[in-house]
TrEMBL record:
<dbReference type="InterPro" id="IPR008271">
    <property type="entry name" value="Ser/Thr_kinase_AS"/>
</dbReference>
<protein>
    <recommendedName>
        <fullName>cyclin-dependent kinase</fullName>
        <ecNumber>2.7.11.22</ecNumber>
    </recommendedName>
</protein>
<dbReference type="GO" id="GO:0004693">
    <property type="term" value="F:cyclin-dependent protein serine/threonine kinase activity"/>
</dbReference>
<dbReference type="InterPro" id="IPR011009">
    <property type="entry name" value="Kinase-like_dom_sf"/>
</dbReference>
<dbReference type="GO" id="GO:0007346">
    <property type="term" value="P:regulation of mitotic cell cycle"/>
</dbReference>
<feature type="compositionally biased region" description="Basic and acidic residues">
    <location>
        <begin position="440"/>
        <end position="449"/>
    </location>
</feature>
<keyword id="KW-0723">Serine/threonine-protein kinase</keyword>
<dbReference type="InterPro" id="IPR050108">
    <property type="entry name" value="CDK"/>
</dbReference>
<feature type="domain" description="Protein kinase">
    <location>
        <begin position="104"/>
        <end position="403"/>
    </location>
</feature>
<dbReference type="InterPro" id="IPR000719">
    <property type="entry name" value="Prot_kinase_dom"/>
</dbReference>
<feature type="compositionally biased region" description="Basic and acidic residues">
    <location>
        <begin position="27"/>
        <end position="40"/>
    </location>
</feature>
<dbReference type="GO" id="GO:0005634">
    <property type="term" value="C:nucleus"/>
</dbReference>
<feature type="region of interest" description="Disordered">
    <location>
        <begin position="1"/>
        <end position="80"/>
    </location>
</feature>
<keyword id="KW-0067">ATP-binding</keyword>
<dbReference type="GO" id="GO:0005524">
    <property type="term" value="F:ATP binding"/>
</dbReference>
<keyword id="KW-0547">Nucleotide-binding</keyword>
<keyword id="KW-0808">Transferase</keyword>
């Protein structure tokens, strides 16, 4: 019985377990269905747009890299959205080969300066005239000349109506060595430089023309100073004039960036002698924008008289010429000049001088500049102050009353044109000293300076100079 019963029991049990199995299977299927449904819902939340899903409707497995709502990417950045958009990206450096000088037809040489040979040339593709300045490599013992580097660096940074435009830098053929490489600056061409023009003119410029020229020169200088650039070689041969009455500053071989306070130990041997400020002649190393203003003062005077203002043969002669016209420095006209390096040698001589001891400013005499109005003379005297701190800034010069009084500056369009000498084989120009060659720093000694005052005392008798030696 037990076995039968057991058998019957067993049959019941079998039925029971089959039902339980079916139930479990059903529950399992239900769980799977629910799970799938949850998964589908989750997918819908992750993939708000059909674009984000794959073609089979499944969400893309890629990490979300598209911008948040409201964010935009630059059009040309869309590619980076796909791959690695969250990685910092830096623009590639573009290195292009320099163009070759043979795209220019050489017409004639204009001038050989201290640091380059300038020629007139024509761009073959457009027919436009350009000036080609071939850099001289001979002033450098190692590598590229620093004057060339400075000229390229500063001119490339400048965009101003009164600064010559550097269009590009091109290469010529060489033997491959750095010493032999030929580098040319391609610049806009201007028909004249003011030194050659003044030398050729029978009469000086009219007062209204002097104002137009001076205003443009000072506007170029103001732009440089506003951008922390010192030109350091302003002179009439570095000022170019075209036949539309526009003046432009050129020759940036001495230019450099500066700061306030100025960088330590600047070279003193800058600026062509005749246009060099007295603080440079006395050995100042921490000079500033005022040295350019002194040069502009010399240029202004030269435009008025047609002749360079101070024409020393050497540093001592130059100081002699300056002090002869303006009087020697005193503690009133130039406080602190005694601390300049070369003033030590000068001091014993000056302490004997019985000159304008109480004057606080230096003044120019009207007799030397008969064509200049009182206000013009005042402006010139200010620019030629012995003390650098007494000189006006370029911005102040631009606002000076001299430019507002009659006669008003002549409109550029009305400016006279002059026959250009730039198509002659070499410009004829009166002799002027060259820009200083780097590495030739002058040191004045007491002997030189004695010479200065003896020479001056002799000159004084005839010319009525202000300096009196005890
Ligand atoms: P360097 O640095 O060797 O002294 P510059 O740049 O001063 O050379 O140029 C020497 C001369 O060449 C200038 O005085 C001027 O007569 C002429 N010159 C320079 N640049 C130009 C130009 N862009 N257009 C016409 N003549 C120019």
């Amino acid at each position: 019985m037990a076995s039968r019963s057991s058998k019957w029991t067993s049959a019941d049990d079998d039925q029971e377990s089959a039902a339980a199995l079916a139930q479990r299977k059903k529950q399992k299927e239900e769980r799977r269905r629910l799970k799938e449904e949850r998964a589908r819902n989750a997918t819908k939340q992750l993939a708000p747009s059909a674009d984000a899903a794959g073609s089979d409707g499944r969400p893309s497995k890629r990490q979300r890299t598209s911008p948040e709502q409201g964010e935009t990417l630059p059009a040309n950045d869309q590619s980076s959205v796909e791959e690695g958009a969250n990685i910092l990206q830096f623009p590639h450096r573009q290195f292009g080969p320099c163009a070759h000088v043979d795209q220019f037809e050489l017409l004639n040489n204009i001038e050989e300066g201290s640091y380059g040979v300038v020629s007139r040339a024509r761009r073959k593709t457009t027919g436009t005239l350009v000036a080609l300045k071939k850099l001289k490599m001979e002033h450098t013992s190692d590598g590229f000349p620093v004057t060339g580097l400075r000229e390229i660096q500063t001119l490339r940074a400048c965009r101003h109506a009164n600064i010559v435009e550097l269009q590009e830098v091109v290469m010529g053929d060489g033997d491959g060595s750095l010493k032999d490489v030929n580098v040319y600056l391609v610049m806009e061409f201007l028909e004249h430089d003011l030194a050659t023009l003044l030398g050729d003119m029978a009469e000086p410029f009219l007062p209204s023309e002097i104002k137009t020229l001076t205003l443009q020169i000072v506007a170029g200088v103001e732009y440089l100073h506003r951008n922390w650039i010192l030109h350091r070689d302003l002179k009439t041969s570095n000022l170019l004039l075209n036949n539309r009455g526009e003046v432009k500053l050129a020759d940036f071989g001495m230019a450099r960036y500066t700061s306030r306070p100025p960088p330590p130990k600047l070279t003193q041997l800058v600026v062509t002698l005749w246009y060099r400020a007295p603080e440079l002649l006395l050995g100042a190393e921490d000079y500033h924008f005022e040295i350019d203003i002194w040069s502009v003062g010399c240029i202004f005077a030269e435009l008025v008289t047609k002749e360079p203002l101070f024409r020393g043969n050497n540093e001592v002669g130059q100081l002699s010429s300056i002090f002869g016209m303006l009087g020697p420095p005193t503690k009133h006209t130039w406080p602190g000049y005694q601390s300049l390096p070369n003033a030590k040698a000068l001091h014993p001589l000056l302490s004997n001088a019985n000159a304008k001891a109480n004057a606080t400013t230096t003044t120019l005499t009207a007799s030397k500049f008969p064509y200049l109005s009182t206000s013009g003379l005042r402006l010139l005297s200010a620019m030629l102050s012995l003390s650098p701190t007494s000189r006006p800034s370029a911005a102040e010069v631009l606002n000076h009353a001299y430019f507002k009084e009659d006669p008003r500056p002549k409109a550029k369009e009305m400016f006279p044109t002059f026959p250009s000498t730039a198509n002659q084989e070499k410009r004829r120009r009166r002799e002027t000293p060259q820009a200083p060659i780097r590495g030739d720093a002058p040191k004045l000694d007491e002997q030189d300076l004695k010479g200065l005052f003896v020479g001056q005392a002799e000159e004084e008798q005839g010319a009525g100079f202000a300096l009196r030696l005890g």
